[in-house]
Amino acid sequence: MVKYPWAEPAFGFDDDPKERADQLRPIHTSAVRHGAHGRANGPRPRPVIEASWQRVRKAGVRQGTPDPQINPDSVPEAFDGIQETHAIDAKALIDFITHAFAPALANSQLVGVLALEGSHVAMRFGSRSAIAHADSIGMVPGALWSETGVGTNAIGITALTGRPTQVHGPEHWCVDQHDWSCSAAPVRNPATGRPIAVLDVSGPVSQSHPAVLGLVQSVASQVELMMEVEHRRRLDALRVKVLPQFQHSGGPLILCDRNGWVLGAIGVEAPDKLDLNAVNDEAVHLVPGIGPASLTVNDDVVVVTPLEQAVNRAEYVLNPVTNELRFVDNNGESVFSLSPRHCAILLCLMHATRPLDVHDIAREVWRSAEVSPVTVRAEMSRLRKRFPHLVSEAPYRVLSTVHIG
């Protein structure tokens, strides 16, 4: 289950939602006339709203934009997509969300929304009157509720940023949504970490409250927990099926699914998950945390074989002219393209007579003591993630001999 950063509600728990909407109207009017920032000395929208207003203005979305584009075929296509890409049972997903939303939406004018790929509305939950109210602004199955489709709205912002969002009244860019308040949260597939949907609760400004944002986050977390339980069940089933086939292997090898979740390891220690997204198509794969390895894909299983002998007899050759790093061992040769910055960092570490800290590297590579240590650490993290057996943790040094060639 994903732990989200703190989500900012649109107004305080003790504030009157109608009064807050009235306070926001002149801010929206000013933004329409003078740009997303409004008047230089006037009140400004919240940063998340201001950023969205800037994006929709740049995209040419008018505040009087009519109802969204509607493509009914997008709904079955989106459900088929999550089934094929994420192995999520669409019916089980809908049933779970319906059950989770039911107590909160009963006897209210709030409508729950499930939006899938591309911010297309897939399902709605709530009373008949609430759903009829949603019809009035085009929040219907197949409707495109992205920022570029209907301007600033909670579904569109959350789909774009991956963060829970509440948009209240005139914080919406399009005026036909000014009587609405919307709260949305992303739903991520625990197996991949990628978002698969956005959950939203929308309704009249008068029925809005910061707690609605918490409600949506809670339901999203429940959905993710359901998917995580199913993911663990599938891993266990795959583990039972696959491990006996390799139990007599001397290793070293690691068995994982296509997302990198480890099923078992023989003759080598392995984490719970490998980052197979970082694996390239070279002859030798550099798996973060494992180092040089060969990969074999058998149906739903990936066999990762660490090349221990290759690590001991490996040779690295750096070409600072072409910014290329060659890795050569008994299994062949791989050539990796480096950014000029990473090439300069390796040269710096190669010529250093002692391990270097971020300040040393800033002076030698950036030629400045003023560069932020955070910037240097970020570059070192990216370099170490790509070549874990070449560069040490801080203080930094090269772990293998690197030749210039």
UniProtKB/TrEMBL annotation:
Residue intervals of the GAF domain: 134-225
Keywords: Transcription, Transcription regulation
Pfam families, per the entry: GAF
Domain of life: Bacteria
One of the GO biological process terms: regulation of DNA-templated transcription
GO MF term set: DNA binding
Record-given protein name: GAF domain protein
Organism (species): Brevibacterium mcbrellneri ATCC 49030
